[in-house]
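I am writing to request your help with a piece of structural work I have in hand. What I wish to show you is a protein chain and, alongside it, a tokenised description of its three-dimensional fold. Could you please explain, in whatever detail you think fit, how the structure tokens follow from the sequence? You will find the record immediately after this paragraph.
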Amino acid sequence: MRILQVIPYFAPRWGGDVSVCYSISKCLTTRGHRVTIVTTDIGFDRAYSRSIEDYGVRVLSFPCASTLGFYLISPRMKDWLEENMSDYDIVHLHSARSYQNNIAVRYARKSQVPYIVQAHGSLGKNSQKRILKGLYDLAYGSKIMKHAAKFLAVSELESGQYRRLTKDGTRTELVPNCLDLERFKTLPERGQFREKHGLGNAEIVMYLGRIHKTKDIDLLIRAFDMVSKERVNALLVIAGPDYGHEKRLRILVRRLGLDRHVKFVGFLENVTEAYVDADVLVNPRIAEIFGLVPLEAAMCATPIVVSNRCGIAPLVSESGCGHIVDPTDSESLAKAIIDVLKNKDINIDNAARAKVYLQRSIGCEAVLDRLENVYRECVRKA
């Protein structure tokens, strides 16, 4: 098949949607499909692009003329889509709301090319952009959803969001985010991350992801205040790019007197080094649609703690790779972290055994089988 992936930005610092687009595009190409990614030059990572082009994926980056919130206007992409859309069998949209969706859908419909929508957790309107999202839906979003061949949900939580938004449960397919198993075949030696950041022999409690207020990192910091009193050698490491929230978190750290026990290390080029050296990785977000980072840590035999309301909670429970807690209950979250630190050998063994389960259930090959079936059904019906 000739597959067009449409995503507003393409660099690892933007988060999980980029990682998913990268992984599935690479795997689809190795299966013999022709894959093109179209994106904008906002934060474009040329080295990252080259690394997937080596597999045969074509990446086209178009200049962004202006921005309005999440609306990245790229007229040259519009011209390219108008001219080339008919060359493709199916279009995969990686977002719920974007200028790229508008123009891709316009020319997909004109060329009678089916398209699918993968929201990557962006369907909700309970953020600071809810007004912009509401306006977008009135102008464009409802039409885009109406004519989509399929919606891809990564968890039951997101399936419910699609159903509530579209009033239609017949077009939603459950296809989880995939783990690129090649990344975990050869792990870095332990100690490299510790040495780079001067962490010594501290017990590392890690958060890894965007530093954004929607990530509920403050809940982890409050719980860690309790952890630090019982585990005096524990260190909370917060890794990831700042999305305007780090200053507030640093103020909270100072107010709790945790300056010597919390370290911000910024964006990491090599996250597997961090996974390998962490004693436990915590994702405190209350309502995470999926959450790939904890599962990547589990693939490095690192125990994890996640919210009982996140999309991967069933996977964590079934695989036995970590603890599931209510992150709004600081005491419960602290107890789960302390339990991991006290019982390192047991938890590490559990995480290692869980690798087999995760490989079978959300490894790229397993997920791509399901995704290919969705593509084929859409093309056949079109």
